[in-house]
Amino acid sequence: MPVTVVVGTQWGDEGKGKLTDLFAEEMDVVVRYQGGHNAGHTIVVDSETFALQLVPSGILYPHITPVIGNGVVVEPQTLFEELEMLASRGVDTSRLMVSGNAHLIMPYHLELDKVTERYLGKNSLGTTKRGIGPAYSDKAARVGIRVQDLLDPKIFREKLESVLKEKNAILAKVYNRLPMDPKAMGDLYLDTYAPKLAKLIGDTTSFLHRCLAEGKEVLAEGAQATFLDLDHGTYPYVTSSNPTAGGACVGTGIGPRDITRVVGIAKAYVTRVGAGPFPTEVTGDIADLLVERGHEYGTNTKRRRRPGWFDCVMARQAVAINSLSEIALTKLDVLDALETVRVCTGYRVGDDITEEIPYHQSTLHKVEPIYFELAGWKTDISQLTCLDDLPKEAREYVGFLESQVGVPVSLVGVGPGRKQFVDFAK
């Protein structure tokens, strides 16, 4: 049976949580395949808001088995706080499975993330300082500590003592920080976290393949987005993993031929957090309007997002990189108040015009967006659920985006609620 992958097509914050929650109604399993607690997903159900960081969005459905895949980096305290929050609100969290091959975020990862960002000064990358990058660095360097290591106290302590020798030397000699105690850290993880995690740890790859063999439906949920991908994003202003659709295979163990549907989530405009190039960025009154109407502040960090017009150049590349079968467009209602709406269809690079993203980052910083202007609809669409009821200008806007990016828009979000969307495929 098919696997559906949900992937962000911009710089994150496109509304993947809401769409994952929407698609999950027809699924049996929802698996998170990369990232950590640096990415928040917000879901609104019956006027009740759930802000999730690590737990897959599908946990809000009682028939779903939520899975944290091997590609995720897990900060235990955050995970347990999130599970306690959900349980206190009546959500059954006992179904959660956590891959034994997922890597742990340790206290030294958090400390290194903070001090290195501070050390970079004006060249900082704008990370969330949640230890994500250092944890993935250790994974690549093969000195990471995995979730399954908590099940063997002897091995866990040996690995922790070994890695802390290096980390303490760096913290003390480079950043003038106090060394960390491996015994105290080991006691915390083994005495407090291990007993709770032991109930959740499993071989999630084998579980997912058994589900597929039984004909069950699986939804793979990514965090961040295409242009924050370590390989395909606006490097170095990227995350430390692969949010693109290919990362779903690596981060879960699902094979490429099991994937038959890839849904790209795109906001009706664009935002990004932190530093990095942003060709269609806007400032002034329009920026303030988009930020306030769209509540464009980080779910976890509360940082104000940088807003801009929809960028078809980015969207086309996201379609190609992820083999998107369709796009789900979110937050169309945020544009309700505008007289006109702009869409970037290409870039001017000196005397040349291109419809592709320049491969060289220095060029990308200098491009001039080429805009096509459409009429706004000046109508509140947040309560509409029927395509025919959408204003003509709103339908024309979505149709124009379809013609530019080359794949159909299957549904359009008109508000944060679970049922606030219009089926555009009908």
Q: Can you tell me about this structure?
A:
The chain has 12 helices and 20 strands. With 426 residues, the chain is of the alpha/beta class. A 10-stranded mixed beta sheet has the order 9-7-5-2-10-1-11-15-19-20, sandwiched between helices. Strands 14, 16, 17 and 18 form a 4-stranded mixed beta sheet that branches. A two-stranded antiparallel ribbon has the order 3-4. The longest helix is centred in the middle third of the chain and has 21 residues, at 153-173.
Query: Order of strands across the biggest sheet?
Result: 9-7-5-2-10-1-11-15-19-20
What share of residues is helical? 25-40%
> What is the residue-mean pLDDT, rounded to a whole number?
92
| Basic shape | globular
Please report the distance between the alpha carbons of the first and last residues: 24 Å
Structural class, from secondary structure content?
A: alpha/beta
Q: Name the beta content range.
A: 15-25%
Count of helical segments? 12
Question: How would a crystallographer describe the biggest sheet?
Answer: 10 strands, mixed
